Amino acid sequence: MVLLERAVEVAQRLEGKAGPGTIDWSVIDRWPAHPGLVNTFASNIEKTLAEYPEERRSKAVLLFSAHSLPMTVVNRGDPYPAEVAATVYAVMQRLKFSNPYRLCWQSQVGPQPWLGPQTQTSVEEYISKGQKDLVLIPIAFTSDHIETLFELDKEVIGESGHADTVKRVESLNGNPMFIEALADLAKSHLDSGIACSYQMGLRCPGCKNERCAESKKFFVGVQDSLAV
What we know:
Layout: H1 2-18, H2 35-49, H3 54-57, E1 61-67, H4 71-75, H5 80-94, E2 101-106, H6 119-128, E3 134-138, H7 146-157, E4 166-168, H8 176-192, H9 210-227
Parallel strand pairs: 1-2, 1-3, 3-4
Helix pairs in contact: 1-9, 2-5, 2-8
GO molecular function: ferrochelatase activity
Keywords: Heme biosynthesis, Iron, Lyase, Membrane, Mitochondrion, Mitochondrion inner membrane, Porphyrin biosynthesis
Enzyme class: lyase
Protein backbone atom coordinates (compact mmCIF):
# COMPACT_ATOMS: atom_id res chain seq x y z
CA MET A 1 0.00 0.00 0.00
CA VAL A 2 2.93 2.35 0.61
CA LEU A 3 3.93 2.02 -3.05
CA LEU A 4 0.36 2.75 -4.16
CA GLU A 5 0.21 5.83 -1.94
CA ARG A 6 3.44 7.12 -3.45
CA ALA A 7 2.14 6.41 -6.96
CA VAL A 8 -0.96 8.45 -6.16
CA GLU A 9 1.18 11.30 -4.84
CA VAL A 10 3.17 11.33 -8.08
CA ALA A 11 -0.04 11.27 -10.11
CA GLN A 12 -1.53 14.16 -8.16
CA ARG A 13 1.63 16.26 -8.53
CA LEU A 14 1.70 15.64 -12.28
CA GLU A 15 -1.95 16.59 -12.60
CA GLY A 16 -1.25 19.66 -10.49
CA LYS A 17 1.24 20.81 -13.11
CA ALA A 18 -0.65 19.66 -16.20
CA GLY A 19 -4.13 20.52 -14.96
CA PRO A 20 -6.94 18.30 -13.63
CA GLY A 21 -8.28 15.81 -16.15
CA THR A 22 -5.45 16.29 -18.64
CA ILE A 23 -3.89 12.90 -17.94
CA ASP A 24 -5.66 9.57 -18.47
CA TRP A 25 -4.60 7.14 -15.75
CA SER A 26 -4.69 3.38 -16.21
CA VAL A 27 -3.62 0.86 -13.57
CA ILE A 28 -2.79 -2.84 -13.87
CA ASP A 29 -3.30 -3.63 -10.23
CA ARG A 30 -3.61 -7.41 -9.87
CA TRP A 31 -2.87 -10.50 -11.94
CA PRO A 32 -2.24 -13.39 -9.52
CA ALA A 33 -3.48 -16.12 -11.85
CA HIS A 34 -2.38 -14.77 -15.25
CA PRO A 35 -1.60 -17.84 -17.44
CA GLY A 36 1.81 -16.51 -18.49
CA LEU A 37 2.83 -15.84 -14.89
CA VAL A 38 1.62 -19.26 -13.80
CA ASN A 39 3.33 -21.06 -16.68
CA THR A 40 6.65 -19.34 -16.01
CA PHE A 41 6.62 -20.29 -12.34
CA ALA A 42 5.60 -23.86 -13.20
CA SER A 43 8.32 -24.20 -15.85
CA ASN A 44 11.01 -22.99 -13.44
CA ILE A 45 9.78 -25.40 -10.75
CA GLU A 46 9.91 -28.31 -13.19
CA LYS A 47 13.53 -27.43 -14.06
CA THR A 48 14.51 -27.50 -10.39
CA LEU A 49 12.63 -30.73 -9.68
CA ALA A 50 14.54 -32.36 -12.54
CA GLU A 51 17.72 -31.92 -10.46
CA TYR A 52 16.49 -34.52 -7.96
CA PRO A 53 16.85 -38.26 -8.59
CA GLU A 54 13.69 -39.59 -10.22
CA GLU A 55 12.80 -41.80 -7.25
CA ARG A 56 12.79 -38.74 -4.92
CA ARG A 57 11.40 -36.12 -7.29
CA SER A 58 7.67 -36.39 -6.58
CA LYS A 59 8.26 -36.46 -2.82
CA ALA A 60 10.17 -33.18 -2.69
CA VAL A 61 8.13 -30.59 -0.78
CA LEU A 62 7.45 -27.34 -2.62
CA LEU A 63 7.72 -24.39 -0.24
CA PHE A 64 6.26 -21.26 -1.82
CA SER A 65 7.72 -18.24 -0.05
CA ALA A 66 6.24 -14.74 -0.07
CA HIS A 67 6.96 -11.56 1.85
CA SER A 68 5.06 -11.66 5.12
CA LEU A 69 2.77 -9.00 6.60
CA PRO A 70 2.21 -7.85 10.19
CA MET A 71 -0.92 -9.49 11.58
CA THR A 72 -2.35 -6.03 12.20
CA VAL A 73 -2.43 -5.57 8.41
CA VAL A 74 -3.81 -9.07 7.79
CA ASN A 75 -6.54 -8.66 10.41
CA ARG A 76 -7.81 -5.41 8.94
CA GLY A 77 -8.62 -7.31 5.75
CA ASP A 78 -5.72 -6.83 3.32
CA PRO A 79 -6.31 -9.09 0.26
CA TYR A 80 -2.60 -9.80 -0.30
CA PRO A 81 -2.45 -13.23 1.44
CA ALA A 82 -5.46 -14.48 -0.55
CA GLU A 83 -4.02 -13.28 -3.85
CA VAL A 84 -0.65 -14.90 -3.17
CA ALA A 85 -2.50 -18.10 -2.31
CA ALA A 86 -4.38 -17.81 -5.61
CA THR A 87 -1.07 -17.78 -7.49
CA VAL A 88 0.17 -20.80 -5.55
CA TYR A 89 -2.98 -22.78 -6.26
CA ALA A 90 -2.93 -21.89 -9.97
CA VAL A 91 0.71 -22.99 -10.23
CA MET A 92 -0.06 -26.28 -8.50
CA GLN A 93 -2.98 -26.83 -10.88
CA ARG A 94 -0.61 -26.30 -13.79
CA LEU A 95 1.77 -28.86 -12.20
CA LYS A 96 -1.18 -31.25 -11.72
CA PHE A 97 -0.42 -31.27 -8.00
CA SER A 98 2.70 -33.33 -8.67
CA ASN A 99 4.21 -32.65 -5.23
CA PRO A 100 3.17 -31.86 -1.67
CA TYR A 101 3.33 -28.12 -1.04
CA ARG A 102 2.92 -25.36 1.50
CA LEU A 103 2.85 -21.56 1.44
CA CYS A 104 5.15 -19.89 3.95
CA TRP A 105 6.27 -16.33 4.59
CA GLN A 106 9.60 -14.53 4.92
CA SER A 107 11.21 -11.19 5.82
CA GLN A 108 9.56 -10.67 9.19
CA VAL A 109 11.01 -7.69 11.08
CA GLY A 110 10.36 -6.36 14.57
CA PRO A 111 8.75 -7.97 17.62
CA GLN A 112 5.08 -7.76 16.64
CA PRO A 113 3.26 -10.87 15.32
CA TRP A 114 3.57 -11.50 11.57
CA LEU A 115 1.80 -13.84 9.18
CA GLY A 116 3.39 -17.29 9.34
CA PRO A 117 4.77 -19.84 9.20
CA GLN A 118 8.15 -18.26 8.53
CA THR A 119 10.14 -19.76 5.66
CA GLN A 120 13.34 -20.38 7.61
CA THR A 121 11.46 -21.98 10.49
CA SER A 122 9.52 -24.16 8.04
CA VAL A 123 12.75 -25.43 6.47
CA GLU A 124 14.28 -26.15 9.88
CA GLU A 125 11.20 -28.01 11.10
CA TYR A 126 10.84 -30.12 7.96
CA ILE A 127 14.51 -31.11 8.15
CA SER A 128 14.07 -32.04 11.81
CA LYS A 129 11.23 -34.33 10.72
CA GLY A 130 13.49 -36.02 8.18
CA GLN A 131 12.16 -34.20 5.09
CA LYS A 132 15.31 -32.85 3.47
CA ASP A 133 14.23 -32.52 -0.18
CA LEU A 134 12.77 -29.02 -0.14
CA VAL A 135 12.22 -26.66 -3.08
CA LEU A 136 11.93 -22.96 -2.23
CA ILE A 137 9.87 -20.90 -4.66
CA PRO A 138 9.92 -17.08 -4.27
CA ILE A 139 6.30 -16.77 -5.38
CA ALA A 140 5.57 -13.09 -4.70
CA PHE A 141 8.79 -11.76 -6.22
CA THR A 142 9.45 -11.18 -9.92
CA SER A 143 13.23 -10.64 -9.79
CA ASP A 144 16.27 -11.49 -7.70
CA HIS A 145 17.18 -9.12 -4.90
CA ILE A 146 18.29 -9.23 -1.26
CA GLU A 147 15.30 -11.36 -0.21
CA THR A 148 16.18 -14.11 -2.66
CA LEU A 149 19.94 -13.85 -3.12
CA PHE A 150 20.72 -13.30 0.56
CA GLU A 151 17.73 -14.24 2.70
CA LEU A 152 16.78 -17.44 0.87
CA ASP A 153 20.12 -18.48 -0.64
CA LYS A 154 22.46 -17.52 2.20
CA GLU A 155 20.38 -17.52 5.37
CA VAL A 156 17.73 -20.16 4.74
CA ILE A 157 19.50 -22.61 2.42
CA GLY A 158 23.08 -21.80 3.47
CA GLU A 159 22.33 -22.24 7.16
CA SER A 160 20.16 -25.34 6.70
CA GLY A 161 23.15 -27.67 6.52
CA HIS A 162 21.56 -29.35 3.51
CA ALA A 163 22.39 -27.13 0.54
CA ASP A 164 22.57 -30.27 -1.60
CA THR A 165 18.91 -31.16 -1.03
CA VAL A 166 17.32 -27.77 -0.26
CA LYS A 167 17.14 -25.88 -3.55
CA ARG A 168 15.70 -22.57 -4.74
CA VAL A 169 13.76 -22.13 -7.96
CA GLU A 170 15.13 -19.47 -10.29
CA SER A 171 13.33 -16.13 -10.08
CA LEU A 172 11.36 -14.88 -13.08
CA ASN A 173 13.88 -12.15 -13.93
CA GLY A 174 14.17 -11.77 -17.73
CA ASN A 175 12.60 -15.11 -18.63
CA PRO A 176 11.18 -14.66 -22.18
CA MET A 177 7.98 -16.45 -21.13
CA PHE A 178 7.51 -13.94 -18.31
CA ILE A 179 8.26 -10.95 -20.55
CA GLU A 180 5.69 -12.21 -23.03
CA ALA A 181 3.21 -12.53 -20.17
CA LEU A 182 3.80 -8.89 -19.18
CA ALA A 183 3.27 -7.77 -22.78
CA ASP A 184 0.04 -9.78 -22.99
CA LEU A 185 -1.10 -8.36 -19.68
CA ALA A 186 -0.52 -4.78 -20.84
CA LYS A 187 -2.25 -5.35 -24.19
CA SER A 188 -5.25 -7.10 -22.62
CA HIS A 189 -5.57 -4.30 -20.07
CA LEU A 190 -5.53 -1.56 -22.72
CA ASP A 191 -7.93 -3.49 -24.95
CA SER A 192 -10.38 -3.93 -22.06
CA GLY A 193 -10.99 -0.19 -21.66
CA ILE A 194 -11.02 -0.66 -17.88
CA ALA A 195 -8.86 1.91 -16.11
CA CYS A 196 -8.44 -0.18 -12.96
CA SER A 197 -10.33 -2.87 -11.09
CA TYR A 198 -13.10 -2.07 -8.62
CA GLN A 199 -10.92 -3.76 -6.02
CA MET A 200 -8.64 -0.72 -6.10
CA GLY A 201 -11.34 1.58 -4.78
CA LEU A 202 -12.36 -0.65 -1.87
CA ARG A 203 -10.89 0.02 1.57
CA CYS A 204 -10.13 -2.90 3.87
CA PRO A 205 -12.91 -3.46 6.46
CA GLY A 206 -10.68 -2.43 9.34
CA CYS A 207 -8.73 0.34 7.60
CA LYS A 208 -8.21 3.48 9.68
CA ASN A 209 -5.41 4.97 7.58
CA GLU A 210 -6.46 8.31 6.11
CA ARG A 211 -3.62 8.29 3.56
CA CYS A 212 -4.95 4.96 2.32
CA ALA A 213 -8.44 6.44 2.18
CA GLU A 214 -7.18 9.28 0.00
CA SER A 215 -5.45 6.86 -2.38
CA LYS A 216 -8.65 4.84 -2.67
CA LYS A 217 -10.57 8.01 -3.58
CA PHE A 218 -8.06 8.60 -6.37
CA PHE A 219 -8.66 5.13 -7.86
CA VAL A 220 -12.44 5.55 -7.59
CA GLY A 221 -11.98 8.77 -9.55
CA VAL A 222 -9.99 6.91 -12.20
CA GLN A 223 -12.85 4.41 -12.55
CA ASP A 224 -15.49 7.15 -12.72
CA SER A 225 -13.60 9.24 -15.26
CA LEU A 226 -13.48 6.30 -17.65
CA ALA A 227 -17.14 5.50 -17.09
CA VAL A 228 -18.04 9.06 -18.10
